[in-house]
Structure formats: structure tokens, C-alpha cells
Specification:
71 residues, mainly alpha, 2 helices, single chain, 80% helix
Length: 71
């Protein structure tokens, strides 16, 4: 079981973000609800970016390691 304060997985954050975008686009939320959704969307976008940045660092490290081993 994941820790209560642990960030969601990339997939969970992306899926929730997609739901928020859909909710904002349909225009049925009140202004207050829209602002809360927007703020949550910003948080989720940052989480997704952190996951992507971490994955890129791992790939770059693996590429660098592979190149070092070739020499």
C-alpha cells in the first residue's frame, strides 16, 4: 500500500489531469470549482513533469553508461 503523502504514479496523475481538462472544457463547473480544478491540474502537471524528468535522467545515465562500456 502506498504512503498517504506519496505522489501518484505518472499514469494516475495523467489520467486525473485529463479528467480535469475535460471538466473544465465542458464548462459545467462554477467559477470556484473551476479555480480548484485548475489548481489541482497545475499540481498534477508538475507531478507528471517530475516523473518525465526522472525518466529522462535515468535514460541519459543508461546511455552514458553504455557509451563508457563501449570504450
Amino acid at each position: 500500500m502506498a504512503a498517504k503523502d506519496a505522489p501518484p504514479s505518472y499514469e494516475a496523475a495523467r489520467d486525473e489531469l485529463a479528467e480535469i481538462v475535460e471538466s473544465l472544457e465542458d464548462g459545467s463547473a462554477t467559477l470556484e470549482e473551476s479555480l480548484k480544478l485548475w489548481e489541482r491540474g497545475e499540481e498534477l502537471a508538475k507531478i507528471c513533469q517530475q516523473w518525465l524528468d526522472g525518466a529522462k535522467k535515468k535514460l541519459d545515465a543508461a546511455k552514458s553508461s553504455a557509451k563508457s562500456e563501449e570504450k
